[in-house]
Amino acid sequence: MVSSYCHWDGYPSFNGKVLVEHYQNREDVKELIDGGSMSSLRTRETWNSGSILRDADGEYITDSEGYHMYENDRDPQPKYHSERGDGQEPTHTSFDTFVSGDSCEEYAYLYTLEGNWVCHKIGWGDEPTEIVEIPSVALAA
């Protein structure tokens, strides 16, 4: 098993939905993981982007997907640590190690051989790991 760490928004309501909506096949999942550790799974922000853009009323400007827009931003994508010159390579591990809670993560996502995402809420101490539902997303046909 190969995995990659993501620092922000690990909850099923964000990262779970992003994974289901934007990483629907093995090639896309492999490319995502091969990028290594990341700050965010999906954002327009870069390590060098400027301020968040605001409209005339001072409200944040967002794109059609709801992502904040920044000066010098880009289309939504992962924000890899390697883009700033550091980060961790993908980790090769067993499933038990992956969901052991040693990494201080709250959720772990597994892309199955059947092509589905499964979210595991990490148990702490003697608590067992449990599968939790990823909220539904409307996928383009």
Could you outline the blueprint of secondary structure elements for this entry?
Layout: E1 2-3, H1 12-22, H2 26-34, E2 38-43, E3 77-80, E4 91-92, H3 95-98, E5 107-111, E6 117-121, E7 130-132
Give the tags.
single chain; 141 residues; alpha+beta; three-stranded antiparallel β-sheet; two-stranded antiparallel ribbon; 3 helices; 17% helix
- Low-confidence runs (pLDDT<50, min 5 residues)? none
Order of helices and strands: EHHEEEHEEE
**Strand arrangement across the biggest beta sheet:** 5-6-7
Straight-line N-to-C gap: 30 Å
Class by alpha and beta content: alpha+beta
- Given the C-alpha coordinates, what overall shape results? globular
Tell me the strand percentage band.
Answer: 15-25%
Fraction of residues in H or I helices: 10-25%
Number of domains: 1
Number of helices: 3
Number of strands: 7
Radius of gyration: 16 Å
Quick check: average pLDDT?
90
Largest sheet: 3 strands, antiparallel
Report on this model:
17% of the residues lie in helices and 19% in strands. The chain has 141 residues and is of the alpha+beta class. The protein has one domain (2-132). The strands form three sheets. A three-stranded antiparallel beta sheet has the order 5-6-7, covered by helices on one side.
